[in-house]
Write a structure and sequence with these properties.
The structure holds 2 protein chains of 2 kinds. By secondary structure, chain A is mainly alpha-helical. Chain A contains 10 helices and no strands. Chain A is globular and about 60 Å long. Classes of the chains: A mainly alpha, B alpha/beta. Chain B: It is found in: Cell membrane.
């Protein structure tokens, strides 16, 4: 147990010490939330008056993607490249506790992100409605899906390639995922594609649980659950420790 | 006890490791005991890393058997991991972590670890506590890496090139720690191609090349074995080997600039004749070795005669030609 808690604490500390990771997991989501809530330039779905009511769920989805996919993927990718994973392999830590500590680290990051972002959203006049109790469930499913994608890259590509790809994917999934630009404002096929992406599924589900007049997200829950199963399964299948 | 004291700490029996068609290790056997430093010596590509990584549980033998403390490193990894310490040649540590943080992290993996602060002082890094791994010098990284191999009080320590690329002072620190480790009863398996290090530090030297055993003996045995029938000396380069040879009635060759070999037994009369010849010409004698060779001589002789034998068989000779002369690569 001591090994697990020390491992988790160390992983979290290293991640928070890393400026780039902090930028992508906290600063960028916070900046997008505050900027687009205050500056009225983004299109909003029909029936939404306040920007923050649409943005807050989308930015929470973005936060999940940034910590579970980008932070975790890049961090693990470099640990693999620098043989940290190889070195840990000869210690009594063991893979189950290592994986457990990574999961715990992402959960801790999510809690920190949620406190900062939800706090900021309330300060901006956010008025969540719907069934907020389901939002953490959606975020956990999203975290599983994105962690799977991040670890798949980390476990198969070089650290620098994982860095580039994770950042590129982050931007694509952000733009196509309905996180800050509503699906209604995308050309039909692109919007339809976006809804099948993990980012699109998660943002639809979070809109539905946190905004009263959002469209129902039955299909999105299924898409999200499929990603949450398929991506970690692929990571387990293809991850190479060295 | 799973492994009573009389069972060798490391047993390698007829180990074969193949990667596709390439034979990395071809039927290697040796042992390493507790309270001894065993140096696994060989040129690059000799099969050292494959062998050690099999002992560490990273890869499985194609055939043959390895045991560490009587355990199978592959299938009994979780029993073995608490009892071994590993130092990788480079890397293996979170780049943004500080020395005491990584020592405390690793300490949490073991039941009875060495106190991290104590270990940090032992490797001379107490004043580098604020630095992250990536800002440590190469020598400091090696010392921290060694500390991590020792933190769990291992019974067997695998050290891969522990002093590679380190300044002389750092090398002394590491050698002293490794010697202390041996004195406390740990079995140390040292991988190196630094012959000087093996000569100074090892109790036993296992020389391999192309995955097969060339020698397994103490450094003293190796250096005094065989070839007692020549004299080697150092002097100014360009001496007249023909004239000296006539004088000594033996063939004299300049093997490297200023390094000479006389093909005759080192009788007092011959040595006297040699020094007299030099004295007549007022040539200073830099050094003189007779009977006893340096480990480097032994190493080169063994690996080169193995190579010559291999070149008799054409199938392997082609592959060999790309590697060139390995004498320098081994130093």
């Amino acid at each position: 147990m001591k090994a697990f808690t020390t491992q988790t604490r160390t992983e979290l500390m290293l991640s928070l010490r890393n400026g780039e990771q902090l930028l992508v997991s906290i600063a960028i989501p916070l900046l997008l939330l505050v900027f687009f809530s205050l500056v009225d330039v983004l299109p909003l779905p029909d029936g939404v008056d306040k920007g923050v009511d649409f943005l807050a769920p989308g930015i929470l989805a973005l936060a999940v993607m940034s910590s579970a996919m980008v932070s975790l993927g890049i961090g693990t990718g470099f640990e693999r490249q620098y043989k940290v994973l190889k070195r840990l392999g000869t210690t009594p830590l063991g893979r189950p506790r290592w994986v457990g500590a990574k999961i715990a680290m992402v959960l801790c990051l999510l809690v920190i992100q949620s406190i900062v972002l939800v706090g900021a959203a309330f300060a901006l006049g956010w008025n969540p409605a719907g069934s907020p109790a389901l939002a953490p469930v959606a975020m956990l499913l999203g975290a599983a899906a994105f962690a799977g994608i991040g670890l798949l890259m980390a476990g198969t590509l070089r650290g620098t390639l994982t860095l580039a790809l994770a950042n590129g994917l982050y931007l694509v999934l952000l733009l196509l995922g309905g996180m800050i630009i509503p699906f209604d404002n995308m050309p039909g096929p692109i919007g339809a594609l976006g809804k099948l992406l993990p980012s699109g599924a998660l943002s639809q589900v979070l809109q539905a649980t946190l905004r009263a007049d959002a469209p129902p997200a039955g299909t999105a829950w299924i898409v999200l659950a499929l990603w949450a199963i398929a991506a970690p399964a692929a990571a387990i299948r293809f991850f190479r420790w060295e | 006890m799973v492994s009573p004291a009389d069972v060798p700490a490391i047993q390698v029996d007829d180990l074969v490791i193949r990667y596709g068609d390439h034979v990395a290790v071809g039927g290697l056997s040796f042992e390493a005991r507790r309270g001894e430093i065993t140096a696994l010596l060989g040129p690059n590509g000799a099969g050292k890393t494959s062998t050690v990584e099999t002992l560490e549980g990273y890869r499985s033998p194609t055939s043959g058997r390895v045991r560490v403390l009587g355990l199978d490193p592959g299938s009994q990894h979780s029993l073995l991991a608490p009892r071994i310490g590993v130092m990788l040649q480079s890397g293996g540590i979170y780049t943004g972590i500080r020395p005491l943080e990584i020592l405390r992290l690793f300490a949490s993996y073991y039941d009875n670890p060495v106190e991290p602060v104590e270990l940090l002082e032992m490797v001379g890094l107490a004043d580098r506590q604020r630095s992250t791994w990536r800002s440590l010098s190469g020598g400091e990284q090696q010392r921290l890496s060694l500390a991590l191999a020792l933190i769990g009080r291992p019974e067997v320590a695998f050290l891969d090139e522990p002093t590679a690329g380190i300044d002389p002072a750092g090398r002394q620190v590491i050698r002293r720690i490794v010697a202390d480790l041996r004195d406390s009863g740990v079995a140390v398996l040292l991988t190196t191609h630094d012959l000087d290090e093996a000569e100074k530090l090892a109790d036993r030297v296992v020389i391999i090349d192309h995955g097969t055993l060339l020698a397994d003996a103490t450094p003293a045995e190796l250096m005094s074995a065989g070839k007692g029938d020549d004299i080697r000396f150092g002097a100014t380069s360009g001496l007249d080997c023909g004239s000296l040879g006539d004088h000594l009635r033996a063939s004299v060759t300049e093997e490297a600039p200023g390094e000479y070999r006389v093909a005759t037994a080192a009788t007092p009369a011959t040595v006297a004749a040699l020094t007299a010849w030099l004295a007549e010409r007022n040539e200073p004698l830099a050094d003189l070795r007779a009977g006893r060779q340096s480990l480097e001589d032994v190493f080169l002789r063994l690996t080169e005669s193995a190579e010559a034998a291999r070149e008799q068989s054409p199938g392997v000779a082609a592959r060999r030609s790309s590697r060139g002369r390995r004498g320098r690569g081994a130093a």
